[in-house]
Structures are given as C-alpha cells and as structure tokens.
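Consortium newsletter contribution from the modelling node. Members have asked for a concrete example of what our holo predictions look like. Here is one, prepared for the nicotinamide-adenine-dinucleotide complex that several groups have been discussing at recent meetings.
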Amino acid sequence: MASTTGTRTLHHWIGGAPDDTPAGRTGAITESASGDVVARVPFADAALVDRAVALAAAAAEGWGRASLGQRAKVMFAFRALLDEHREELAGLVVREHGKVHADALGEVQRGIEVAEFACGLGQLLKGEMSAGVSSGVDSYSLRQPLGVVAGITPFNFPVMVPMWMVPIALACGNAFILKPSEQDPSPSLLIADLLRRAGLPDGVFSVVHGDREAVDAILEHPGIAAVSFVGSTAVARHVHEAGTRHGKRVQALGGAKNHAVVLPDADLDLAADALVSAGYGSAGQRCMAVSVGVLVGDVAEPLVARVRERIGRLVVADGTQADADMGPLISDAHLRRVTGYVDRGVAEGATLLVDGRALEAGDRGHFIGPTLFDHVEPGMAIYDEEVFGPVLVLVRRETYREAMELIAANAYGNGAAIFTNDGGAARAFEQEVPAGMVGINVPIPVPMAYHSFGGWKDSLFGDLHVHGPDGVRFYTRGKVVTRRWPDPSHRGVDLGFPAER
Ligand code: NAD
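And here is the predicted structure:
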C-alpha cells in the first residue's frame, strides 16, 4: 500500500535563493514505483508569480548587458556542473518520474547537449553586416534579449525539456522563470542551484511551482515577454491563445501520435527492435514514442511475430533495478486513464495481442505492462487519441500510398518514421510526410541540440521550434541598424583621397 510518511515540502526558487512563502495550496509528489507520497510541492498564486517577475526584471537588465564573454563563462561553468551532477539528476528522474536509470541518464545527456550548444553564444548571436549599401552608409543586424521569459514544462522529461529552453534563453541575455510539472519538480531545483553555483546573478533564473493558477498568472503577466510551453495539445492550445492574447510571443508544443511505416522490403529485425524500444521505452510516456505501427503489404505477419517475441523479453520493474527495461507510469490517475484506453480498444473491436493489464506488480506503484493491439483503425479511441502509455497499436495497409493517406488524416504531426531499404521510397516519405521530425530507419528522430525540435499540426502552436537556431530566434528580437558616417572630406578634413560627389 502507498504510504505518506516522511514527506518534506519543496520550495520555490526566487531571487537566487529558496523561497518558503507559505502556500495556500500544495500538491503531492509520488514515487512512481511505490506510489508513496515522498514530498509536497507548494503551488504559486498570482502574487508569488508577480514577485518572481519583479526580481527577474531587475536582474534581466544587468544580465542582458553583460558581455558575451561573461555570459559564456557562466554557461561553461553550468555545463561542467551538470556533468558532475548527472547521476544526481538522473536519480531524481528515476524516483519521481519512474524512468529506468539508463533512460534517465540519457535524458540528462540530451539536456547537457543544449547547454553545450548555448556555450557557443558568441557565434549564435552574431549579426550580419552589409558594408557600403550607399555612399558612407552601412547596414547591420543585431539580436537583443526580450527581458523576462517563462517556460512551462511537462512531467515526462523533467530535466531535458526545461533544458531545451533555459540555457538558450539565458545565453541570449534573458531572465527565465520556470514552472515545471508539479508531478516531478525536484530536478528544477537542482538545476537552479547549479546555475547559482555557476555564477548566474541572483534573480536571473527562478522556479515557481504550481498548476493552472500559476500558469494563468504567467500568461497574463505584463512583465513576461515570451512563453515556451511543452505539454498536452489541449493545454498547448490554451497557452498559445491566452499568451498571444496578452501580447506575448508563444511557442507551445503539444501532444503526438507518431506513426512508423514498415515497408515490405524493410530489415524486419531492425524494424521490430525499433517498434519495441520506441513504443515501450519510458513506458510510452514520450512525445516522440512510436504509438502507431503501419504495416504495409505482407510485412504484417512476420513483423507481428517478431514484435511479440521481443515484448516477451521486456522486464517491467522499478527503474532502480539494473535489468529493468520499462518502469511505471507517472501516477495512479494516469494508470487508470491508460487501462481505460485498453478497455476501450477491446470494446471497439481491435485485436488485443498482448495485454499489459495482466502484469503482476502487486499493489504498489503505477505499473502496466507493454500492450499490443492489431487490426486497429481510425475511429477507435486507441488510434485517434494520445494514450501516452505502453500501448502500441498496429494498423495494416496494402500500399505505401494508403499508409500516407492514414498519416495525412491524423490530427498530430510531431514525428514520423519509415523502415525500408528503398532510397526512393525513403526520399518520397521525407518529402511528403506532414510531420516536423522524420526518421528513416530511425524510430525516434529527435533532432540534436544544434537543430530545432518541433512538430506540425496539433503538435505545435506558434511557428518557431525549440532549441537550436529557432531557440535563439525565439529568445531574441532582431534590429537592423542603417548607419551613415559621411566622408570626413565633407567637413574639410583631407584624408588624401577625393571627396565623394
Ligand atoms: P500537461 O499538458 O498536463 O501539463 C504540462 C504543463 O501544463 C504542466 O506544467 C502543468 O502543470 C500545466 N498544466 C496542466 N493542465 C493545465 C491547465 N489546464 N491550464 C494551464 N496549465 C496546465 O502535460 P503532461 O501530462 O505533463 O505531459 C504529457 C504531455 O506532454 C503529452 O501530451 C506529451 O505528448 C506532451 N509532450 C510534448 C512534447 C513535444 O515536444 N511536443 C514533449 C514532451 C511532452
């Protein structure tokens, strides 16, 4: 049974230090593998957000004017501290999220890569110059910080997603306010402390915890210039609409239903490995998880056999266990939501090949086993909606064209992958698939930190993607200077060359 013993209460991080302002409301943080409540998190109200913004605004002035060298020094120190504390960060992810240890370390690594990208801020913030656009006239462009910006992040990557935003926003000279997921907020506080130790001035980075009340206070605050959001589509749409209505620049990344098409000529072992790792890794709680396999032509029978065989070998256990391949879901409420989808899949006529509801995990933790449905069709909830659990659905199609029509009709467009040995088919797919991130024989095509991450359709509201070059554009605004320095000979100074007429 879940216990609530030994709980501590987390704090906000405001003005460069922990903030213990008593909270009117708090939330419970559970250890996903046991279901135990291990801490409570205070929920910010509008007054607390307002105080964080005031301190951030005061700090942003000096930080925005700090030289590129001073800012780079902090980023390099931050990068080194993240490296030193990668195990500690991963441990918090394993505990509060429930990921297996190797997966949590992978998430930390991807976050560190964004800090590395941000260390190159001297290159990233370079403008362009056109000399001599007219006589004595030059034009050049600058990129300047926005001031105070905010990030609102989901539970499923409590280190990586904040790190998609924070290093770049700071490197660009902004102050940043993070509102992490209330379900696994502890890594944000360690990140705050590492930034302080890296030499970031007080107030430039803040963490305010909370739920919708804190989010709405951020969206409505006139002192916040831009908001980055990552989470479910319904909330992304709300954040984009409310934020832009209040005059902010907003990028809001939403949910996903990523398809992997397997053509008859594919390497079936590679495709089966990919479907299983991308379908069940992190218990399917990844926005780039493959949740739909589209099996083309006669690939279906041999591929299904290979997928089932691999599922049989997966170890579902507490993420601290060395041999665990897949951990629990984030919460009991989410477990009930996912099992509800499995029930509906059966009721709506899909063929349940592997039933994760049968997992024997005792009465502790939020566990469900890997689940596989075949003969799934649009119109079934397990196809139309984002399940966000270890539920892989297979749709059978006769031709590549039919597979593409299926993907085109889907509401989401985050990632899509194809498995084939035909370069022409792969190229056609890459060109025509309506998704922001495309994999060719790669199931989870997450761009590296120096490219930008983002989807299409209901997977992104706004235009600029996160991190990489789009991140730099998002956290800065452009300015073009047109400058005239008339030839000194106009003032009678003789430089020894003829005056211009
Ligand atoms: P969520 O939308 O429930 O929560 C995200 C954030 O919004 C949290 O900080 C939460 O406190 C806040 N929030 C929740 N409900 C709110 C409301 N009604 N009003 C205002 N704020 C609210 O998402 P989640 O369950 O934490 O994360 C899983 C979702 O995130 C999935 O849909 C997944 O696909 C998506 N996701 C997308 C990406 C991407 O890059 N597109 C990446 C990671 C996760």
